[in-house]
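Quick one, tokens below. Sequence please?
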């Protein structure tokens, strides 16, 4: 069914509702990408490029600095927010619907800035990308970075991920490893004939239970690392001594560690636990806060509040890898992301827009 074209003159909260009315779970972003591209091509102060379902728009005013505003246009799968009626504004001014928080309210802010700030004090790049909520190799921002890195060039970036209206600096890295123990299969009635691989994983679990999280201060922000078992697999049948067990461990680490240092720490931490096989299953690195950059300091002064660390992983990591310091900022509450009752306070969306506008026009 065709959708009404996006009207970028709408209030930011109304525009959020229109964006939510374009169902765009990961892999199904084309209609929304088409609408965003069409709306941006109607703005004469921007040049617009597209790669797949990723849309990039830029000013070219010759300013001394360039700022990137980026946000993903996909959502998690729609649950009890049916596609035919995905958004609803209640009597308390709360906008409900899949993506309201993560992160179509942030995308609406981007679009409003693109429409209204025609003479910014810094050149602007707006990035709208697909497939953030799924496997890293599908991430649209990553695809653009590989194919057209020049489109993402900048001195500073703001990722419009939900932060409840506060600036969150950088992000932690996330490392997932598989710790495997081996045994010898036998009948459970004659267990002494085998070796129990699940029992052999006991030292791993004990070491995890004894873990004391590191809380380093990085560029003025205190991060909080975590090392946790997130899955355990083993067993053949209820009458068989298992010959293999796998403990999946997730390490969330602060941005003062490199990816190599994170792997080395986890490997060393379990070195005395009888691990037979150590496998890195997934790994995405962290990003430093970048708040010491002059543009970041100006951003903080304009938007106000107190900077906080981002404990999760976001695509500020990709910008960091490109040499662009980045922060997270948007009106959505991260605690409501991906929930069936996802929602955002509508009044906070134009407020976030105004705070960004002050930074870019003062």
């Amino acid at each position: 069914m065709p959708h009404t074209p996006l009207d970028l003159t709408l209030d930011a909260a109304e525009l959020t509702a229109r964006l939510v009315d374009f169902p765009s779970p990961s892999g199904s972003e084309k209609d929304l990408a088409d609408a965003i591209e069409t709306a941006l091509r109607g703005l004469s102060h921007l040049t617009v490029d597209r790669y797949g379902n990723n849309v990039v728009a830029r000013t070219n005013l010759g300013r001394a600095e360039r700022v990137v505003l980026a946000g993903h246009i996909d959502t998690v799968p729609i649950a009890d927010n049916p596609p035919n009626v995905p958004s609803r504004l209640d009597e308390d001014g709360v906008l409900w619907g899949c993506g309201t928080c993560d992160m179509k309210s942030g995308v609406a802010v981007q679009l409003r800035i693109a429409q209204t700030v025609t003479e910014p004090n810094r050149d602007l790049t707006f990035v709208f990308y697909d497939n953030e909520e799924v496997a890293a190799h599908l991430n649209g921002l990553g695809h653009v970075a590989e194919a057209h890195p020049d489109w993402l060039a900048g001195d500073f970036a703001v990722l419009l991920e939900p932060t409840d209206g506060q600036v969150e600096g950088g992000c932690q890295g996330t490392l997932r490893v598989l710790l495997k123990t081996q045994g010898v299969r036998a009948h459970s009635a004659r267990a002494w004939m085998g070796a129990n691989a699940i029992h052999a994983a006991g030292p791993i679990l004990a070491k995890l239970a004894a873990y004391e999280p590191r809380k380093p201060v990085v560029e003025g922000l205190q991060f909080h690392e975590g090392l946790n078992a997130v899955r355990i697999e083993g067993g053949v049948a209820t009458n068989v001594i298992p010959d293999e067990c796998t403990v999946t461990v997730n390490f969330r680490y602060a941005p003062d560690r490199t990816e190599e240092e994170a792997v080395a720490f986890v490997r060393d931490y379990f070195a005395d636990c009888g691990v037979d096989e150590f496998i890195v299953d997934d790994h995405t690195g962290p990003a430093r806060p970048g708040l010491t950059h002059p543009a970041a300091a100006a951003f903080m002064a304009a938007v106000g509040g107190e900077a906080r660390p981002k404990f999760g992983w976001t695509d500020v990591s990709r910008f960091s890898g490109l040499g662009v310091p980045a922060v997270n900022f948007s009106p959505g509450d991260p605690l409501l992301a991906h929930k069936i009752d996802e929602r955002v306070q509508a009044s906070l969306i134009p407020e976030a827009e105004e705070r960004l506008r002050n930074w870019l026009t003062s």
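The two ends are 42 Å apart (CA to CA). Residues 100-116 form the longest helix (17 residues).
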